[in-house]
Amino acid sequence: MATTVISAFNEFLKESVNLDSNKTITARSSRDWLISKINNFDNNQSFPYIYQDIHINFGSFARRTKIRPLDDIDIMIGIKSDYCTYYENNEDIKILIDSNTARLNNYTHDNTTYVNSRKIINLFVSELSKIEQYSSSEINRRQEAATLKLKSYDWNFDIVPCFITVPDIYDRTFYLIPDGNGHWKKTDPRIDKNRTTDINVKHDGNMLNVIRIVKYWQKRKTMPTMSSYLLETILLNYYDNKSYCSPYVDIELEGVFRHISDVIYNTVNDHKNIQGDINNLPWDDRVKISNKALSDAEKVNLARDLEEKYDYQKSINVWREIFGDAFPQYG
Fold it and tell me: 8-16: long-range contacts at Cβ-Cβ below 8 A with a sequence spacing of 24 or more?
């Protein structure tokens, strides 16, 4: 229950949107514990050499854009190249073993010298089953990670094996991760995390609450859902070009919704400059998202007008139309 719009938003963010701080601490601790266990996997002489220096936490939990419920934590686990090399074509990246390769040569595609990413993931699945607190592990549906469930926690861990390239002519390195088809693809979560942090700092730490509350909004079953990464990219682009973000989330939302309504029709390029256009939504979905965003932008305008007239009850009721029953009632 709330008697002002500000108190309603504070309660909504704390109780329904943002992760519980104690659970976040536990989650980070569980992640670090798991990584410490994985670091010993190469004591098994048939397991690839672990490259601890390139482990990286990625995904929305690492970027601090995760909303409730905390259901998964993403980790990339480094593997040493073991004398392997790679080459890329228009379809995928292939990693080739060498005559000096000691361990990865056991995990190639049949009758080839190409390292099979599915076999590497399945090896992780097998080793993860030996960890204490183990509940289950499997290769995920996209064939890009090993998903681990431990008995003690509500969340899963998505564990992605990775290599890192040597610097290219621009002195840039990339991570190579499974592509879902048995080979590999480039990524670089360092760029995602650094860009999110830099833009949030530029706005005095106010942007993350906006991102999280808009992620909550678009997850509701009132429109088609876009990917979390697409939505975050749209919002990062928006705030990268703005000079100010209010500490009061409600002040930001009309502009954000109108922006989404416009740009959802457009190309949205991956800011890592690896994937190209990440807006793969069907046209009908774009129309529905655009219409919903525009409609809710108009509701935000109404709610703000009611608040300025000190009619907090009606204003809060409009916000409940936008965010649903989890948004606090007036009273």
Answer: 8/316, 8/319, 8/327, 8/328, 8/330, 9/248, 9/249, 9/250, 9/319, 11/328, 12/213, 12/323, 12/326, 12/327, 12/328, 13/209, 13/212, 13/213, 13/249, 15/326, 16/68, 16/216, 16/326, 16/327
- What pLDDT, on the 0 to 100 scale, is given for residue 126? 97
> Is the pTM for the entire model greater than 0.85?
yes
- What sections of 58-158 are H helices per DSSP? 59-63, 117-128
Q: Tokens for 267?
A: 């190309």
Strands annotated E in 165-317? 175-178, 184-187
In angstroms, the CA 125 to CA 61 distance is: 22
- pLDDT digit string (tens) for 233-292? 999 999 999 999 999 999 999 999 999 999 999 999 999 999 999 999 999 999 999 999
Contact 89, 236 (CB under 8 A): no
